[in-house]
Amino acid sequence: MDKLTGKTVLITGGSSGIGLASAKLFLEHGARLAITGRDPDGLARAREELGSETLIIRSDAGNLAEIAALMQQVESHFKRLDVLFVNAGVATAAPIELVSETQFDDIMGINFKGVFFTIQKALPLFGANASIIVTTSITNQLGSPNFSVYGASKAALRSLVRSLALELVGRGIRINAISPGPIATPIFDRFGLPPDMAQEIKSGIEQKSPSKRFGSPQEVAKVALFLASEDSAYVVGEEIVVDGGMSLL
Ligand SMILES: NC(=O)c1ccc[n+]([C@@H]2O[C@H](COP(=O)([O-])OP(=O)(O)OC[C@H]3O[C@@H](n4cnc5c(N)ncnc54)[C@H](OP(=O)(O)O)[C@@H]3O)[C@@H](O)[C@H]2O)c1
Protein backbone atom coordinates (compact mmCIF):
# COMPACT_ATOMS: atom_id res chain seq x y z
CA MET A 1 0.00 0.00 0.00
CA ASP A 2 2.82 2.42 -0.68
CA LYS A 3 2.89 2.80 -4.45
CA LEU A 4 2.56 6.59 -4.23
CA THR A 5 4.41 7.39 -1.03
CA GLY A 6 6.04 10.80 -1.34
CA LYS A 7 4.20 11.55 -4.60
CA THR A 8 2.07 14.64 -5.12
CA VAL A 9 -1.10 14.09 -7.11
CA LEU A 10 -3.75 16.34 -8.64
CA ILE A 11 -7.04 14.76 -9.74
CA THR A 12 -9.47 16.97 -11.66
CA GLY A 13 -13.05 15.88 -11.11
CA GLY A 14 -11.99 14.18 -7.89
CA SER A 15 -15.21 14.92 -6.02
CA SER A 16 -17.34 12.14 -7.54
CA GLY A 17 -17.33 8.77 -9.30
CA ILE A 18 -14.06 7.59 -10.85
CA GLY A 19 -12.07 10.57 -9.59
CA LEU A 20 -13.26 10.17 -5.99
CA ALA A 21 -12.59 6.41 -5.96
CA SER A 22 -9.10 7.09 -7.33
CA ALA A 23 -8.51 9.79 -4.73
CA LYS A 24 -9.33 7.33 -1.94
CA LEU A 25 -7.08 4.62 -3.37
CA PHE A 26 -4.22 7.06 -4.00
CA LEU A 27 -4.44 8.27 -0.39
CA GLU A 28 -4.27 4.66 0.83
CA HIS A 29 -1.06 4.38 -1.19
CA GLY A 30 0.55 7.36 0.49
CA ALA A 31 -0.09 10.16 -2.00
CA ARG A 32 -0.25 13.83 -1.07
CA LEU A 33 -3.42 14.79 -2.85
CA ALA A 34 -5.30 17.71 -4.39
CA ILE A 35 -8.67 17.33 -6.08
CA THR A 36 -11.00 19.64 -7.98
CA GLY A 37 -14.68 19.89 -8.77
CA ARG A 38 -17.29 22.62 -9.23
CA ASP A 39 -20.29 21.81 -7.08
CA PRO A 40 -19.74 23.10 -3.49
CA ASP A 41 -21.88 20.31 -2.00
CA GLY A 42 -19.91 17.65 -3.86
CA LEU A 43 -16.65 19.21 -2.72
CA ALA A 44 -17.88 19.31 0.89
CA ARG A 45 -18.82 15.61 0.72
CA ALA A 46 -15.41 14.84 -0.78
CA ARG A 47 -13.71 16.68 2.09
CA GLU A 48 -15.54 14.44 4.57
CA GLU A 49 -14.47 11.32 2.69
CA LEU A 50 -10.88 12.35 1.92
CA GLY A 51 -9.97 14.12 5.16
CA SER A 52 -8.42 17.45 6.01
CA GLU A 53 -4.97 16.62 4.59
CA THR A 54 -6.39 16.65 1.06
CA LEU A 55 -6.34 19.95 -0.78
CA ILE A 56 -9.88 20.48 -2.11
CA ILE A 57 -10.09 23.18 -4.77
CA ARG A 58 -13.14 24.58 -6.54
CA SER A 59 -12.00 25.03 -10.14
CA ASP A 60 -13.86 24.91 -13.44
CA ALA A 61 -12.02 22.50 -15.74
CA GLY A 62 -13.23 24.43 -18.78
CA ASN A 63 -12.04 27.87 -17.66
CA LEU A 64 -8.46 28.77 -18.54
CA ALA A 65 -8.08 31.47 -15.88
CA GLU A 66 -9.29 29.02 -13.22
CA ILE A 67 -6.93 26.33 -14.51
CA ALA A 68 -3.99 28.75 -14.20
CA ALA A 69 -5.09 29.71 -10.67
CA LEU A 70 -5.41 26.02 -9.80
CA MET A 71 -1.83 25.35 -10.80
CA GLN A 72 -0.65 28.30 -8.71
CA GLN A 73 -2.44 26.84 -5.68
CA VAL A 74 -0.98 23.39 -6.29
CA GLU A 75 2.50 24.86 -6.68
CA SER A 76 2.31 26.94 -3.52
CA HIS A 77 1.02 23.93 -1.55
CA PHE A 78 3.12 21.07 -2.97
CA LYS A 79 5.97 22.88 -4.79
CA ARG A 80 5.88 20.20 -7.50
CA LEU A 81 3.58 17.65 -9.12
CA ASP A 82 4.32 13.97 -9.75
CA VAL A 83 0.94 12.74 -11.00
CA LEU A 84 -1.78 14.62 -12.88
CA PHE A 85 -5.03 12.71 -13.40
CA VAL A 86 -7.08 14.79 -15.86
CA ASN A 87 -10.43 13.19 -15.25
CA ALA A 88 -13.13 15.89 -15.05
CA GLY A 89 -15.67 15.45 -17.80
CA VAL A 90 -19.29 15.97 -18.74
CA ALA A 91 -21.65 13.91 -20.89
CA THR A 92 -24.96 15.21 -22.14
CA ALA A 93 -27.15 13.40 -24.62
CA ALA A 94 -28.94 14.94 -27.58
CA PRO A 95 -29.78 14.00 -31.17
CA ILE A 96 -27.85 16.08 -33.71
CA GLU A 97 -30.78 18.40 -34.48
CA LEU A 98 -31.07 19.42 -30.83
CA VAL A 99 -27.40 20.10 -30.07
CA SER A 100 -27.03 23.84 -29.43
CA GLU A 101 -23.79 25.76 -29.92
CA THR A 102 -23.67 26.32 -26.16
CA GLN A 103 -23.96 22.61 -25.45
CA PHE A 104 -21.32 21.82 -28.08
CA ASP A 105 -18.91 24.42 -26.66
CA ASP A 106 -19.56 23.27 -23.10
CA ILE A 107 -18.71 19.63 -23.81
CA MET A 108 -15.68 20.41 -25.98
CA GLY A 109 -14.54 23.18 -23.62
CA ILE A 110 -14.47 20.89 -20.56
CA ASN A 111 -13.65 17.52 -22.13
CA PHE A 112 -11.04 18.60 -24.69
CA LYS A 113 -9.90 22.22 -24.49
CA GLY A 114 -9.82 22.16 -20.69
CA VAL A 115 -7.79 18.95 -20.65
CA PHE A 116 -5.28 20.37 -23.14
CA PHE A 117 -4.70 23.53 -21.13
CA THR A 118 -4.68 21.72 -17.79
CA ILE A 119 -1.77 19.65 -19.07
CA GLN A 120 -0.07 22.71 -20.59
CA LYS A 121 -0.33 24.76 -17.40
CA ALA A 122 0.81 21.85 -15.20
CA LEU A 123 4.02 21.25 -17.17
CA PRO A 124 6.24 23.66 -15.17
CA LEU A 125 5.28 21.81 -11.96
CA PHE A 126 6.39 18.35 -13.01
CA GLY A 127 9.41 16.73 -11.40
CA ALA A 128 11.35 13.79 -12.84
CA ASN A 129 9.32 10.66 -13.65
CA ALA A 130 5.96 12.38 -13.80
CA SER A 131 2.80 10.64 -14.93
CA ILE A 132 -0.23 12.17 -16.64
CA ILE A 133 -3.42 10.13 -16.94
CA VAL A 134 -6.34 11.24 -19.09
CA THR A 135 -9.84 9.76 -18.83
CA THR A 136 -11.21 9.07 -22.29
CA SER A 137 -14.15 6.73 -23.03
CA ILE A 138 -14.93 3.74 -25.22
CA THR A 139 -17.29 6.09 -27.07
CA ASN A 140 -14.16 7.49 -28.74
CA GLN A 141 -14.08 4.42 -30.98
CA LEU A 142 -17.66 3.17 -30.95
CA GLY A 143 -20.57 4.83 -32.64
CA SER A 144 -22.72 6.34 -29.89
CA PRO A 145 -26.02 7.77 -31.11
CA ASN A 146 -27.03 10.94 -29.24
CA PHE A 147 -23.53 11.24 -27.76
CA SER A 148 -21.80 12.42 -30.94
CA VAL A 149 -20.17 15.51 -29.42
CA TYR A 150 -19.14 13.64 -26.27
CA GLY A 151 -17.62 10.79 -28.31
CA ALA A 152 -15.77 13.25 -30.53
CA SER A 153 -14.39 15.11 -27.49
CA LYS A 154 -13.01 11.84 -26.16
CA ALA A 155 -11.62 10.87 -29.58
CA ALA A 156 -9.73 14.16 -29.58
CA LEU A 157 -8.21 13.14 -26.25
CA ARG A 158 -7.12 9.80 -27.63
CA SER A 159 -5.21 11.64 -30.36
CA LEU A 160 -3.84 14.18 -27.90
CA VAL A 161 -2.43 11.48 -25.64
CA ARG A 162 -0.52 9.88 -28.50
CA SER A 163 0.98 13.15 -29.72
CA LEU A 164 1.89 14.42 -26.27
CA ALA A 165 3.34 11.04 -25.33
CA LEU A 166 6.07 11.55 -27.89
CA GLU A 167 6.40 15.26 -27.17
CA LEU A 168 6.86 14.79 -23.41
CA VAL A 169 8.58 11.44 -22.92
CA GLY A 170 12.02 12.98 -23.42
CA ARG A 171 11.32 15.29 -20.47
CA GLY A 172 10.61 12.34 -18.17
CA ILE A 173 6.84 12.81 -18.40
CA ARG A 174 4.68 9.81 -19.34
CA ILE A 175 1.12 10.32 -20.52
CA ASN A 176 -1.46 7.56 -20.88
CA ALA A 177 -5.23 7.24 -21.02
CA ILE A 178 -7.88 5.16 -19.32
CA SER A 179 -10.87 4.39 -21.51
CA PRO A 180 -13.83 3.37 -19.32
CA GLY A 181 -16.88 1.57 -20.57
CA PRO A 182 -20.07 1.77 -18.49
CA ILE A 183 -19.09 2.56 -14.91
CA ALA A 184 -21.65 3.04 -12.12
CA THR A 185 -21.18 6.71 -11.24
CA PRO A 186 -23.49 9.72 -10.92
CA ILE A 187 -22.69 10.71 -14.52
CA PHE A 188 -25.69 8.67 -15.72
CA ASP A 189 -27.99 10.91 -13.70
CA ARG A 190 -26.49 14.00 -15.33
CA PHE A 191 -27.27 13.12 -18.95
CA GLY A 192 -30.15 15.60 -18.95
CA LEU A 193 -32.64 12.79 -19.67
CA PRO A 194 -35.89 11.99 -17.83
CA PRO A 195 -35.22 9.40 -15.06
CA ASP A 196 -37.16 6.60 -16.81
CA MET A 197 -35.17 7.12 -20.01
CA ALA A 198 -31.87 7.15 -18.09
CA GLN A 199 -32.95 3.91 -16.37
CA GLU A 200 -33.83 2.38 -19.73
CA ILE A 201 -30.34 3.21 -21.03
CA LYS A 202 -28.76 1.66 -17.92
CA SER A 203 -30.78 -1.58 -18.27
CA GLY A 204 -29.96 -1.77 -21.97
CA ILE A 205 -26.23 -1.43 -21.22
CA GLU A 206 -26.34 -4.17 -18.58
CA GLN A 207 -28.07 -6.56 -20.97
CA LYS A 208 -25.65 -5.76 -23.79
CA SER A 209 -22.45 -5.95 -21.74
CA PRO A 210 -20.51 -9.23 -22.03
CA SER A 211 -19.98 -8.93 -18.26
CA LYS A 212 -23.73 -8.26 -17.71
CA ARG A 213 -23.00 -5.46 -15.28
CA PHE A 214 -21.60 -1.98 -14.89
CA GLY A 215 -18.03 -1.62 -13.73
CA SER A 216 -17.34 0.05 -10.40
CA PRO A 217 -15.35 3.26 -10.01
CA GLN A 218 -12.96 1.27 -7.82
CA GLU A 219 -12.17 -1.03 -10.75
CA VAL A 220 -11.13 1.99 -12.79
CA ALA A 221 -9.21 3.47 -9.85
CA LYS A 222 -6.96 0.38 -9.73
CA VAL A 223 -5.95 0.98 -13.35
CA ALA A 224 -5.36 4.66 -12.57
CA LEU A 225 -3.08 3.59 -9.71
CA PHE A 226 -1.12 1.38 -12.09
CA LEU A 227 -0.64 4.26 -14.53
CA ALA A 228 0.20 6.72 -11.74
CA SER A 229 2.84 4.49 -10.16
CA GLU A 230 6.25 3.24 -11.20
CA ASP A 231 4.60 -0.12 -12.04
CA SER A 232 3.84 1.42 -15.44
CA ALA A 233 7.26 3.08 -15.91
CA TYR A 234 7.62 1.75 -19.49
CA VAL A 235 3.99 2.35 -20.55
CA VAL A 236 3.83 5.42 -22.78
CA GLY A 237 0.99 6.80 -24.90
CA GLU A 238 -1.24 3.81 -24.16
CA GLU A 239 -5.01 3.79 -23.71
CA ILE A 240 -6.16 1.07 -21.31
CA VAL A 241 -9.75 0.00 -21.86
CA VAL A 242 -11.75 -0.87 -18.71
CA ASP A 243 -15.13 -1.93 -20.04
CA GLY A 244 -15.98 -5.55 -19.19
CA GLY A 245 -15.57 -6.45 -22.85
CA MET A 246 -18.14 -3.95 -24.15
CA SER A 247 -15.99 -2.52 -26.94
CA LEU A 248 -15.24 -6.02 -28.30
CA LEU A 249 -18.84 -6.44 -29.45
N1 LIG B 1 -19.10 6.60 -15.78
C1 LIG B 1 -18.91 6.14 -17.01
O1 LIG B 1 -19.60 5.21 -17.46
C2 LIG B 1 -17.83 6.74 -17.86
C3 LIG B 1 -17.53 6.09 -19.07
C4 LIG B 1 -16.55 6.61 -19.89
C5 LIG B 1 -15.86 7.75 -19.50
N2 LIG B 1 -16.16 8.37 -18.33
C6 LIG B 1 -15.40 9.57 -17.98
O2 LIG B 1 -14.92 9.46 -16.67
C7 LIG B 1 -14.70 10.76 -16.13
C8 LIG B 1 -15.30 10.81 -14.73
O3 LIG B 1 -16.70 10.62 -14.86
P1 LIG B 1 -17.57 9.90 -13.74
O4 LIG B 1 -18.29 8.81 -14.40
O5 LIG B 1 -16.78 9.63 -12.51
O6 LIG B 1 -18.67 11.05 -13.52
P2 LIG B 1 -19.13 11.91 -12.27
O7 LIG B 1 -19.39 11.04 -11.10
O8 LIG B 1 -20.21 12.77 -12.81
O9 LIG B 1 -17.85 12.79 -11.92
C9 LIG B 1 -17.43 13.82 -12.77
C10 LIG B 1 -16.45 14.67 -12.02
O10 LIG B 1 -15.97 15.70 -12.89
C11 LIG B 1 -16.22 16.95 -12.28
N3 LIG B 1 -16.46 17.97 -13.29
C12 LIG B 1 -17.30 17.93 -14.35
N4 LIG B 1 -17.22 19.08 -15.03
C13 LIG B 1 -16.33 19.85 -14.37
C14 LIG B 1 -15.82 21.14 -14.59
N5 LIG B 1 -16.22 21.91 -15.61
N6 LIG B 1 -14.91 21.61 -13.72
C15 LIG B 1 -14.49 20.87 -12.68
N7 LIG B 1 -14.94 19.64 -12.42
C16 LIG B 1 -15.85 19.14 -13.26
C17 LIG B 1 -17.41 16.72 -11.38
O11 LIG B 1 -17.47 17.73 -10.41
P3 LIG B 1 -18.82 18.62 -10.23
O12 LIG B 1 -19.91 17.65 -9.92
O13 LIG B 1 -18.49 19.51 -9.10
O14 LIG B 1 -19.02 19.32 -11.54
C18 LIG B 1 -17.07 15.36 -10.82
O15 LIG B 1 -16.13 15.47 -9.78
C19 LIG B 1 -15.32 11.73 -17.13
O16 LIG B 1 -14.30 12.30 -17.91
C20 LIG B 1 -16.21 10.86 -17.99
O17 LIG B 1 -16.39 11.37 -19.27
C21 LIG B 1 -17.13 7.89 -17.51
What's the structural domain tally?
1
Low confidence ranges: none
Distance between the termini: 36 Å
Helix content, binned percent: 40-55%
Major beta sheet, strand line-up: 3-2-1-4-5-6-7
- How many strands, which pairing sense, and closed or not: the largest β-sheet? 7 strands, parallel
Average of the residue pLDDT scores: 97
Count all strands and give the number: 7
Corresponding CATH architecture: 3-Layer(aba) Sandwich
Small-molecule binders: NADP nicotinamide-adenine-dinucleotide phosphate
Shape: globular
Order of helices and strands: EHEHEHEHEHEHHE
Cα-atom radius of gyration: 17 Å
Q: Give the C-level CATH assignment.
A: Alpha Beta
The CATH superfamily title: NAD(P)-binding Rossmann-like Domain
CATH topology: Rossmann fold
Describe the fold and architecture.
The structure is a single chain. The chain is built from 7 helices and 7 strands. It is α/β, with parallel strands linked by helices and about 250 residues long. The chain has a 7-stranded parallel sheet, with helices on both faces. Helix 1 links the parallel strand 1 and strand 2. Helix 3 (about 65-80) runs parallel beside helix 4 (about 100-120) and helix 4 (about 100-120) packs parallel to helix 5. The longest helix is centred in the middle third of the chain and has 22 residues, at about 100-120. The relative contact order is 0.15. The structure holds NADP nicotinamide-adenine-dinucleotide phosphate. NADP nicotinamide-adenine-dinucleotide phosphate binds near residues 17, 37, 87, 89 and 110.
